[in-house]
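peptide chain release factor N(5)-glutamine methyltransferase
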Amino acid sequence: MSHFSCIWACKQITKAILRGSRSRYRSTFQKRVSLYFTRCYQPPRSVGFSSCLTESATQKLEDVYKYWSNKFLSHNIGEADVSANYIVAHVLGHKTIYNLDAHTLLNQTQVDKINELCHLRLTGMPVQYVLGEWDFLDLTLTMRPPVLIPRPETEELALLCIETLLNDIEIERPTVLEIGCGSGALSLSLLKKCPKLQVVAVDISPTACSLTQENARSLGLMDRICVIQGDFTSDKVQLELSRLSAFPLIVSNPPYLTTDELTGLQSEIKCFEDPTALDGGLDGLDIIKEIILKAPDLLMTNGHLWMEVSHQQPPLIAKLVQDSHNDICLIEVVKDLFGKDRICHFQKKETGKRK
Ligand SMILES: C[S@@+](CC[C@H](N)C(=O)[O-])C[C@H]1O[C@@H](n2cnc3c(N)ncnc32)[C@H](O)[C@@H]1O
């Protein structure tokens, strides 16, 4: 699926919304998805696709929007109208142009900025990188290539973790571990919703670690997050983590694509996003196996592990857990809003080595 959901995806989301929900947090998510739907796919009133004009003159909002929408379409840029909507709205300090007067006259500085950003979009750069920011739940995060752009499915993972933290963990000041923090989307949304929480966030990519720190700083969450740059599978990182107290919850959206899936990705993703963020090796399970192997030593008894995976992986993961004979159980697989088995919930058993 492309970066910002296509119309088909939104229809699936709407169907899922109508099917009902698993948790009360899902309804927050549904509201946001509806907002997302409205934000993305409602064209501004009285905007059509007929006119075309130059890039330089002072212009009406609807003409600038139409010009770039058509240009993106003729250059086969994905979600042409959505891209134009986001860029024009962003320059005008809004999330969408839908609620703006289509006849608003834009000044030269605004038109120049829109043209500059639209030219970037014409290179195939995802709109999130073009804007330099993207919303994840109710947070606006800085986005910069090649750090992975958080996907809507991951918002659901965040909500499930928040639900676990608020309902199932009776520790006054819990510390969560995130493996592969990217832009910090998951960690920071957990911190925002759980005021007494602390997070340890690990990522192999120095760029991702700096972006997580930058986002934490701008959200005023820097004093509650510790970012460790390193390979989660390495002895060095394992030693560092084992020195911290055992975690009641670990969350990860690890790289889980197979080598074949990675080859077949849209060029927008391949050219701009770090392959390390997506590449799970031949079977997509390289990092997942390591997490399942190492999580029991990092979790406290009855601690939770929540992990986003691809929809083909849950049966393979169930087998991995069974064969590993360690202290972890796969207790549920939650469907995403498209009805696919995408989120695995594990719990550390009471038997074995206690922490
Ligand atoms: C799919 S991205 C998820 C990013 C972010 N959590 C999100 O959901 O938007 C996976 C992240 O794992 C990191 N990563 C990949 N291999 C890793 C490893 N061995 N140790 C630590 N982080 C790793 C990547 O750099 C990337 O930021």
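thats it. The first helix runs from residue 7 to 19. Residues 255 and 277 are 5 Å apart (CA to CA). bye
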